[in-house]
Amino acid sequence: MIIGVKKREKLIEQLANSGICAICKGTKMLCGKSECPLLVRYYSLLKNKKKMGREIDGSSPPGVFVGRYGYPKVNVGPLIPPEKGDTEYMDIPESWIDMNIKEFVDMRTSLVRGMKKVRVDMANEPDYFILDLQELSMANKHVDTEVIFEKIPHGRIVAGSEIQPYGPAAPLKKIIHDNVKVNPKLEKIYYDELKASESILHLYKEGVRVSLIQKAFSMGTMGVNRKIVPTRWSITAVDDTISKHLVSKIKEFGLVDKSMVFMSNKMGNLFAVIFLPRMWSYELVEAWYPGTLWNPYGKRIFMVSSHEYYEGRKDYAEIGGCYYAARLAVGEKLIKMRRQAEVIVLREAQPSYLMPVGVWHVRENVRSALRNQPESFDRETDAINYALSRFHIPQKYWLEGSKLLNRFLHQRRLEDFEIY
Question: Which of 30, 81, 248, 362 could crosslink 24 through cysteines, CB 3.0-4.6 Å?
C-alpha cells in the first residue's frame, strides 16, 4: 500500500503524540518503519566533514564496536580517529560527563569504524582478526593502528540511546597495529575458566572501570563458552550483573537515617536522586518535554518509568538500558554508605539534549549527583516536594508517572501509624 507524503507525515505525528517514540528511542522500530524518521533528521546534521580515504593511520583509543544486526553473524571492527597521540579519552565514558554535548559529538564522530562480518561463536577460535580485536578491547592505552578499507568510509553518523555515537564506516580489508599493552587484570581473566558473571564481578571488585569491562566482555574475552556480544547488549549485561550483586549486599544493611535528595544537571539532563528511609525499592522515571529528542511532535509531556520492589524484577525494564546504568550508580553509593533505601531517580530531558549519547551518560549523571552534597530532610514528604520543585515540569506529572511516588501518596505502612 502506497501512502502519500502528507498522510505519512500525519501518521508519524500521531505516533509521536502517542508517546511511542519515547518508549522506542529509535531501536525497536515500533512505528513499523525500517529506520527511525526522527534519527534520520539528526544524522543529516552530523555528516563528517573530514575527507576520508581508503587508508587511515591513527591511534585507536582503543575502541572496538560490535553490531547487532544479522545476529548471530555481526559486524565487528576497530574505531580509529584520523589522528595520532593520546586518544584514550575518546573511549572512556567515565571522563565525559562534564563535556559540552557538541564537543562530545565532534569527538565521537571523528572515530571511523572498520567492519568485518563474523560469527559470534568465533570468540574461541584461533582467528587472527578476532584475536587482534580482543587484544584491543583489553588494552590500557591507545594503540597506533593502520587500517585499509575496501572502500572509502561513508554513511550517516550512528547514534542510539544505549551506545555512544561514532562516525563513518566501511568494510575492513586489512588492519595493522603496534604492540598492545593489555590490562593485566583482564589478561588474567582471559586465561581463567570463570563464568562470565564471575569474571565481571571479579574485575569490578579489582577496580577495573565499568566501560573497560563492557568493552572486553563484548569481544568474548570472558566466560567458559565464550561468545562475541553486540556492544549494546554488553553494556546492559555488565550494568545489570554488577548492580544486581550490589543490591543483594545493600539488603543486608540498615536503613538510611534521613531522607536525602541529590541533584545533577549535565548534558541537557536534570537528575534528582531521592533516598527514603525504607527497605530497598528502586525506580527510574524519565520525562520528555514536547519538542525534545524522543517527544518531538508531542503536545504534552511524556513520561516513561520502570521500577522494582524489594524482590527485584525478572523481566527486562521497559525503559531500557538506562534503568540498569542508574541502578549501578545508586548501588555504588549505598554500598559506600553501608545503608539501604528506597530510591527514586527522576530524569528531566531538556530541549538542550540534542541527540542520544548513550547509556553511559545516565550512569555518570547519577554518579555525579551522588558525589554532590545532598539536601537532608526529617520528613519524606519534604524531600519529595523539594526534589519535584527543582524541575521545570510540574509536580503533578511526576506524581502521575511514578509508581513509587504514587505508592507513597496512596499506600500507608504499619510504621506510618503511631502506636500508643
Answer: 30
Cβ–Cβ under 8 Å, residues 200 and 214: no
Residue 111, Cβ density class (10 Å: 0-12 exposed, 13-18 middle, ≥19 buried): buried
| Phi/psi at 345 (5° precision) | -105, 120
Helix intervals (H) in 251-355: 321-337
Task: Give the predicted TM-score (pTM) of the model.
Answer: 0.88
Distances 365 to 71, 99, 163, 280, 360 between C-alpha atoms, Å: 32, 12, 16, 21, 8
Please check whether residue 143 is in contact with residue 60, taking contact to mean a CB–CB distance below 8 angstroms. Answer: yes
314-338 exposure pattern, b = at least 16 Cβ within 10 A, e = fewer: eeebebbbbbbbbbbbbbbbbeebe
Q: CB of 387 within 8 A of CB of 261?
A: yes
Nearest to 355 by CA among 40, 64, 90, 32: 40
Indicate the DSSP class of residue 253: S
Q: Classify residue 392 as exposed, middle or buried by CB count within 10 Å of its CB (0-12, 13-18, 19+).
A: exposed
Contact 350, 293 (CB under 8 A): no
Cell of 156: 550517516
Residue-wise burial string across 54-81, b where 16 or more C-beta atoms lie within 10 A, e elsewhere: eebebbbbbbbbbbeeeeeebbbbbbbb
Query: What is the tens place of the pLDDT at every residue in 226-240?
Result: 999 999 999 999 999
3-state secondary structure 378-418: CCHHHHHHHHHHCCCCCHHHHHHHCHHHHHHHHCCCHHHCC
> Which residue in the block uniquely carries the three cell numbers 547514534?
159
pLDDT tens across 364-413, in order?
999 999 999 999 999 999 999 999 999 999 999 999 999 999 998 876 65
